[in-house]
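Hello Y.,

Per our agreement to keep a running log of every chain we model this quarter, I'm adding this entry. I've kept the format consistent with earlier entries: sequence first, then predicted structure.
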Amino acid sequence: MGKTTLDYAKQLDENDELANYRKEFYLLENVIYMDGNSLGLLSRKAEQTLQDLLNAWKKLGIDGWTEGDNPWFYLSEKVGHMMAPLVGGLSEEVIATGSTTTNLHQLVATFYQPSGTKTKILADELNFPSDIYALKSQLVTKGLNPREHLIQVTSRDGRYLDEEDIIAAMTDDVALIVLPAVLYRSGQILNMKKLTAAANERGIPIGFDLCHSIGAIEHHLHDWGVDFAFWCTYKHLNGGPGAVGGLFIHKKHFGIAPGLAGWFGSNKQSQFDMDHTMEPATHAGAYQIGTPHVLSLAPVIGSLAYFQEIGIAKIRQKSLQLTAYFLELVKRELADYQFTIGNPVDDTRGAHILLEHEEAARICKALKVAGVIPDFRTPNGIRLAPVALYNSFEDVWQTVQILKTIMDEKSYEQFENKRGVVA
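Predicted structure for the entry above:
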């Protein structure tokens, strides 16, 4: 049975031990969804936990803060406990709070302590723009010029980062390092263990953006000695649009005052004493700022239940199988259409693939009309994410066949080669 046949894809699905979880998600009608690395689909458990917390509000009113199945006052800690295994953190090292960028602001405000000639922040040129905006903003608040004090390690090829280049940039004037765990365009996984060891040797705090890695790959942040990390929950964690994010603080830093103080970072036993001198929590909860967004946390509880049932190791294993099959079909079926594979072909890739093509924006529009939801990334990238929990091997096969038909018929030519307002 040839690998390019539909029967082969169906056989892979028959042998997939996670195949039954597909039924737990609300798949879009007559659509192959390949954009779970931007927004994961709604699951039945996420829908149920959202409904449960709505009902608690309906039936309990303000008593929902301390009563019911999921008291709101302790909700951030509960969700942090559920997320901890996904990042390799102790339960007290993880808290559900804020958003990716607000959490980054909090962490930089805490860990960036410029002194003397040690004033620079080390980042990279391939990171998601929001992280760079936040780093520049933090420098400005310190009265420092980002052009002089933000180092962005360059890529040798525009796709990947070389860890040796990053380590070489860990010079004596660097006060903080912030890097992505998985590059959002190419899907390259950085060697976090190696980079953290190098930073620790030099006494430089290091943190990682896990937006494209949490729920997709395994992490061991505590054991690696990572100082901090931050992430969203609406991509591979399927928490819903605008779902509450999360952060990790290594236990060795407990007791350090958060850079941005807020009421919900208080010790819960004394929070309602209303004292104007803050007594912070003695764990990652100290880094909360405002009141938990209860209804935006609710679906995350249900979604994380699947990760608890399955374990991230099995999810990662299927993800690698899906993307390997995808890449094999691309090589066999799309070799004549000027596509370039822009992601690592070995196991250093995350959970999506990147196809580069000069007509990428038009091709993405044609895919969507043909029933495949892709993701365009400027200037020429088509991201396609077969998600382990709800995509099948047949989805992958069908996507490649549809893409091949689009290229054969040149149906993409009816569209403008320009991204939409939201890409």
